[in-house]
Design goal:
Pfam families: Anthrone_oxy (PF08592). The chain is mainly α. It has one domain. Helix 1 runs antiparallel to helix 5. The N and C termini lie close together (8 Å). The mean pLDDT is 96.
Length: 156
């Protein structure tokens, strides 16, 4: 069972790395561009992410999290159970729910503004600030899930 936790922990660590890149420098770089250019860059990134390995990991880790939660309840005890379940909660709420209820709707709204220069210029600064804050939460949550699952793998 430790190999499942190890693979899931490494996969979510990769997700955390992508989120960290956005929080650390990608969003800051886009925010420095003129509003319509920064927004256009973000729309382009959002369009390409749907056909990426990152998206496979992001979505694929949701059912994996559910499986790990059941595994923890049925097979693990003590610290291994607690760490595994903490990682599940961190991923499902702090990554998956934040993405689906926060970042994705903002991305959809930004893309719908395509060609509306004044509206985009007005929305972009608020978008960049709020989207980045939500991304910070996803970064911390995915790193926490990785830490929990990798630690649990060592004590199972």
């Amino acid at each position: 069972m430790e190999w499942i936790l190890m693979i899931a922990g490494l996969a979510v660590a990769l997700v955390a790395g992508v989120f960290l890149g956005f929080s650390d420098f990608i969003m800051r770089g886009l925010a420095q561009a003129p509003a319509n250019q920064g927004a256009a860059g973000m729309v382009g990134l959002n369009r390409t992410v749907y056909r990426s390995v990152f998206m496979v990991l992001l979505i694929g880790l949701a059912p994996v999290s559910g499986f790990l939660g059941l595994l923890a309840l049925w097979q693990f005890e003590g610290a291994a159970r607690a760490l595994t379940l903490a990682g599940v909660v961190a991923y499902l709420i702090g990554v998956f729910a934040v993405t689906g209820m926060g970042n994705v709707p903002m991305n959809t709204r930004l893309e719908a503004m395509d060609g509306q220069t004044r509206e985009t210029a007005s929305y972009w600064p608020r978008y960049a600030q709020r989207w980045t804050r939500l991304n910070h939460a996803r970064t911390v949550s995915s790193a926490l899930a990785a830490l929990c699952w990798l630690t649990a793998a060592q004590i199972v």
